[in-house]
Amino acid sequence: MSLYVGSRKNEFAIRLALGAQPGVLLRLVLREGIILIAVGIAIGVGGALVLTRAIASLLFEVSPTDPVVFTGVTLLLVLVALAACFVPARRASRVDPMIALRCE
Asked: 3-56: per-residue pLDDT in tens?
């Protein structure tokens, strides 16, 4: 997300110069991050469910498809990913249009 925000810095500066509210840019960047998080979680949970048979013999006193573990790990990963998206989104909403446009 940091690379995404850095590469679109001029676009965000133009949007702010034309009157966009910083909250709109914040939501724009967070929406992109949430889409990536959702796709990653779907692929990860699907892959984990498929691979549970391979690791079932390595687990001790835990079922391979324990719903508490799957839910806990998924929530933890979503929270960490949202935090990682919020910092660049906040930076995008605070771009100074004059400084960003002078670089060009």
From this structure: 988 888 888 888 888 888 999 999 999 999 999 999 999 999 999 888 887 887
**Residue 2 is assigned to a structural domain of this protein:** no
Cα 26 vs. chain centroid, distance in angstroms? Answer: 13
Q: Where are the alpha helices (DSSP H) in 1-104?
A: 2-7, 9-17, 22-55, 67-93, 97-102
User: CA dihedral in degrees (68, 70, 76, 80; nearest 10)?
Assistant: -170
| Residue 59 is assigned to a structural domain of this protein | yes
Residue 1 lies in a domain: no
Domain that holds residue 80: 7-102
Tell me which amino acid residue 91 is. R
Q: Whole-model pTM?
A: 0.80
